[in-house]
């Protein structure tokens, strides 16, 4: 979530659902792009997404899995070597990367 100047969480002003295109077996292949959401809330998808950088089992919760919206078709190895291999900023196993990241281009086909 984005934070305002006062540190409060700001939501994108909209949310949608239900969950669609989630894998029935909870296995998300490397390169999957999926929508983030609040736990247990299938209608809470908004503006945040995540990229799966290695084949991963992400267990569904009571609401289901995560809506798959696309896949990375090139550059995944670069993402691994320059971003994910450096770990998370706070040393946790998952979270914001040590190196700030910006998406500068994408193509919708």
From TrEMBL:
It comes from Agromyces marinus. Residues 28-105 form the PPIase cyclophilin-type domain. InterPro entries: Cyclophilin-like_dom_sf, Cyclophilin-type_PPIase_dom. Residues 1-24 are annotated as: Disordered. This is PPIase cyclophilin-type domain-containing protein.
